[in-house]
């Protein structure tokens, strides 16, 4: 059944008012209702609007359809907490067993510039124990040593003496930790 021009204008105006109410007044009214639960007269729902006797039949149908849809606008004064993204577990590209030692930024264990790795990275400024030296892996390769460090990810940023072609050396902040670590044999996982 086609609508007359006046009916279309009235319908458009009604829909605009309903959307205006939904998107601008509802959050304020909901906050007010939450703040004072005994003040229920100030909250008007679409269901109440759709039953109004002053509305024509077509406008009531549209209001009823709007209230029966599955999309609902919920206004609340409770702050929304940020959702932390959970990273998917890293894919393991290869696994191998190696002798693992530890070192720190000491001239006796490195060269004349103990804080700078072979690829130019400054360990002392970075300060995190997430760097390893390995001659058999490319710079930037990410590695896990699950038996010794769990899910901690290390990055290859340094090299060792050529005689240690198959060894992994883990950088530690202080000498006592490196000495205490000693020499271990463990599985390493190269990850993506």
Overview of this structure, please?
By secondary structure, the chain is an alpha/beta fold. The chain folds into 2 domains: 5-68, no CATH class; 92-191, Beta Barrel (Barwin-like endoglucanases). 33% of the residues lie in helices and 20% in strands. The chain has helices spanning 5-35, 46-50, 57-68, 123-126, 146-149, 175-181; strands at residues 92-103, 131-134, 142-144, 153-158, 167-171, 184-191. Helix 1 (5-35) packs across helix 3. It is elongated, with a radius of gyration of 33 Å. The two termini are 63 Å apart. Residues 36-52 and 69-73 have low confidence and may be disordered.
Query: How many strands?
Result: 6
Low-confidence stretches: 36-52, 69-73
Q: Strand order across the biggest sheet?
A: 1-5-2-4-3-6
According to CATH, the homologous superfamily of the largest domain is: RlpA-like domain
Assign a percent range to the helix content: 25-40%
Structural class call reads: alpha/beta
The gyration radius over C-alpha positions equals 33 Å
CATH architecture of the largest domain: Beta Barrel
Number of helices: 6
The N- and C-terminal alpha carbons lie at a distance of 63 Å
Strand content: 15-25%
| CATH C-level name of the largest domain | Mainly Beta
> What general form does the structure show?
elongated
Structural domains: how many: 2
Main beta-sheet strand count, sense and barrel state: 6 strands, mixed, barrel
In round numbers, the mean pLDDT is 75
